[in-house]
Amino acid sequence: MASAPAASIAVSDVNGKRELRLAGRLDSYSIAGVWPDARAALDAAPNLPVSVETSRVDYCDGGGIAMLVDLLRQPRQPAALVSVVGLRPEFRTLLDQFDPVALRAHPAEHAERLNTVAEIGRAALILGRDMHMQIAFIGETGAALWYAFTHPHRVRWKDVWYTCEQVGVNALPIVALISFLLGIILAFQSAVPMRQFGAEIFVADLVGLSILRELGPLMTAILLAGRSGAAFAAEIGTMKVNEELNALTTMGLDPVRFLVVTRIIAALLMMPLLCIFADLVGILGGALTMLSFNIPIGAFLHEVDSLVDVKDLLAGLAKAPVFAILIAGIGCLRGLQTQTGASAVGISATRAVVSAIILLVVVDGIYAFIYYLLDI
Amino acid sequence: MPSDPIIRVEHFTAGYDDNVLMRDINFTVNRGEVFVILGGSGCGKSTLMKHMIGLYEPIAGAVYIDGDDIVTAEGDARRAILKKIGVMYQSGALFGSMTLLENVRLPLEEYTSLNDEEIDLIALMKLELVGLDAFSGHMPSEISGGMQKRAAIARAMALDPMILFLDEPSAGLDPITSAELDLLILRLAKSLHITFVIVTHELASIYTVADRVIMLDKRIKGIIAEGDPKVLRDTSDNPWVRQFFRREAAPEVTAEAA
Questions:
Q1: Residue B151 lies in a domain
Q2: What angle, rounded to 10 degrees, do the helices at A261-291 and A172-195 form?
């Protein structure tokens, strides 16, 4: 802190009148030393008129003026008013800008508290509006996708390929890392107990089935939600904050067709490929782990091949397009819903990831149920 | 006014990458004066200001603020310089997650040892100065662009700095508010000897507030005119400068001829 040249205060009572003599430099840093004393001197003499003598104040900035206003604004008896005397004209003009009475007792502005019923009602209303918006968005997106399907030349393919690179190619390292890890963990954790029964070879079936049918698509989808879903929300949210969406709308361009459709198409194209990639790397991870249990890679793959068939691969891959639409759609929707301000973009990105992951789990459950019913 | 420079810009060269915007320029700003930086679009006015407040590092040269070079200062020395200045950015740059009052409170909370009630009063008075005391509990997103700008001025003034830098203060304000802002600038400059460095285009405002202006030009990459704006308007021997001050069209043609 800057070395504050001393501000000083002296209090004396003369002829039934209290005098506060302020001197020195009154600025934002130095007033901290005298302000509480001044207030205390004032409060200690509620029935005496108080004169604040300031002719020896060399400098008084907004902070000093605030202190004087604070002394003047205190509610007092009519016979015990506070006055500021001797203030230099240039500081006096500053003081005169403020009406101390108007600055009196500003009770903190609390938002009106609602009772429980109103609170529940409000939450329900917000939920209802959110659902209404989501249904409208699904309809709008569906129509825009259909339009894109029937008029492929109107799709902005350049944007699609660019997004494909962002969503697909750039995601390969992290997808590989997580799937490989998943393969290793699955194989290792199941191999240890199964070895007790001499059943290590069946680890291959376990790894193959679980990765192809469930974990490959699901982990890829969760990664995609974390990477691309959040990115879509942040990107579109920032565009909204910068009024770029308004610019699109006033040019007569539909933000859904322009921004959402390209991203959904890119996710649709990339998600199955990423799934296949995750499946392969996951199985490779399992196979490599089983080497340490004396099962050669050839034997592992042969075992996988004998139990796992194309139906299982397709059962997993069938989820990919639905997951892709879900993730890209939610990401874009949250982006479009962004409010104003810097924190709004962060909130949108968070909501995009959370809602996408919740929906992924629900949809995956529905798939499992359908597969069970159809005996797939 | 006796010459008492509070800012000295010396042998200053700045630009982005290979694109030099200004080369070897020198000027001073005197204590308590309202100093305006002028120039056509893209000549580097805002860039110059951002160098003067230490946001960017110049290619060469020094910017002395109250005797200390902000270009080379680091750590505590730099913070000490920064406490002497307040800045209002073109967009306001208020923190969106805080109310107006909290925005103005922030520097007071960080730099002074005042208690909450005292800080509240100071912050509220700053908001009153810019006519926003009734909006102290509002979020920046709930008020208009012009109001955000005024709130940003209030925040820049929170610690009563020696120098206030204002980037396009009157852009986006209605004429009445803009004129009131001019009066506020004049009053603060006179009563507190706050020095103002203002980047603006608004001619009416320049004539009202400016003690001295410099005018940048991108063709010569430097200062094309310096002095009292009214004098420059009437007596400058550069036709481009005269036209700028008279708000006449097609200055390029005559500038080529000059």
A1: yes
A2: 40
